[in-house]
Amino acid sequence: MASPRLLRTDAVVLRRHDLGETDRIVTLYTSAYGKLRAVAKGIRRPTSKLGGHLELFTHSRLMLARGRNLDVITQVETVSSFLGLREDLWRTGLAYYVAELIDRLTEERAENPALFDLLIATFERLASARRPDQVVRLFEMQAVGLLGYRPELRDCVLCRKPLEPVGNAFSIPNGGVLCSICRTADPQATPLTTNGLKVLRLYQEGNWNLASRLHLSPELVSELEHVCTGYATSVADSQLKSANFVASLRREGLGRDASPASTNKPV
Ligand SMILES: [Zn+2]
Asked: How close is the Cα of 224 to the center of ligand 1, in Å?
């Protein structure tokens, strides 16, 4: 089926850079098509109708015309500019991190409406929450889960026995918690307190209502950051490597058709 010529979708601006004298290329995370790059023509002219609607982190509703290389933004209106994100440097910094993580975790045109919804909820919370860092921890756990890298937090990821409350550690390469016996398998694993494991499970369930009301000690805050950020950025790096690997295979002429490996020419 041919793709439609015009696309209408909600989007969040993840990244942007200037092109030529008056244009700008924006990287968008859209509700309908996943990540897209598009051109905003003439946006840097003072008279542009697009101006102001495509600032970083803005949630907009837009119309795109399919181009040969990049889509072209033809209409745009702002749904929310998340003002609270811009008025506080710490919140702005966290929003940059969230946008960059989404960009690195995803491939272009791989739709994931739940990830879009998570991004909107994250920016809404980041704009006003009492603990913006905890908004980001929940985002990290949810985002990796929605992309198929949900860490194991109930049973030991190696021996599969249900976890006891004490003696556990989180192993980034194993993608989950190791029990007190298996934790020697990864000397780099982060020791997990009982409270740490409980809060991680709340994040994984997406329970912001409950998570936002917890009073966390500085030690617990740093434990959660170590686990959540360590795991999410490790997934992002492996994503990038795999994406680069696939791209290099494609450059070698592989993956052009669906013929099974056995029909490839012998080496
Ligand atoms: Zn075990």
From this structure: 21
Q: Is the pLDDT of residue 20 over 60?
A: yes
**How far is it, in rounded angstroms, from Cα 137 to Cα 215?**
15
pTM of this structure: 0.86
Count of alpha carbons within 13 angstroms of residue 166, beta-carbon side? 0
Ligand 1 centre to CA of 158 (Å) is: 5
199 CA → ligand 1 middle, Å: 20
Protein residues within 5 Å, CB atom, of ion ligand 1: 156, 158-159, 179, 182
Can you name the CATH fold of 6-82? OB fold (Dihydrolipoamide Acetyltransferase, E2P) (2.40.50)
CATH architecture of residue range(s) 129-251: Up-down Bundle (1.20)
